[in-house]
Design goal:
alpha+beta; Arc Repressor Mutant, subunit A; Nonspecific Lipid-transfer Protein, Chain A; 2 domains; 10 helices; globular
Amino acid sequence: MRTYGQYCGLAKALDQIGDRWSLLIVRELLIRGRSRYTDLRDGLPGIATNLLADRLVDLEEAKVIRREMAEPPVATPLYELTERGRQLEPVIAAFGRWAGPLMAAPSRRDEFRSHWLALPARLYLSDRTPTRAPVQIELRTGDKPVTLVTIDGEVHGRPGPADKPDAVITGSPELIMGVLMGRTTLGRARAAGLKYEGDPSVLRRVQRT
């Protein structure tokens, strides 16, 4: 393991998780939970297979992740975060908030996976009226739909379509994130190409202000 060789908390932390791709592997496991190697590779476009294998070994040695064998007939390694690995969630949340201004103008070369929306939804959104019946919002962007669900005042995201969506939002990732995070209004987002089906009050329940 490469080290900065400094008696400093930040340096010690970066010794273990500061290598390229490490925090993005943590991101994938925060979203997906227990995952196969192929699931992680799909969520990390651009990573070389040997580098992913090396990073998984490094993170396991750092006790950030653990590896277990799935039950037959699957019989493949499954990776998940340890308790120490889950403690990185607020660190990743802070990075995401800091990067907010950088998300307004994505590069055409940027890769995107729709399931990535599940993490900022959980970290930054909340249900303003938690005493009302839960709602489901289906987001249609990227490779597959994602569903946001309100549960006990929190907003959770999962890959896949909603069973009975109360609202459906279709558009580019930046427009969908912009309207959810309150960086733009629904009217402006619609004028820019966003499609919204359902009662606007459903969006207002979870929209950040």
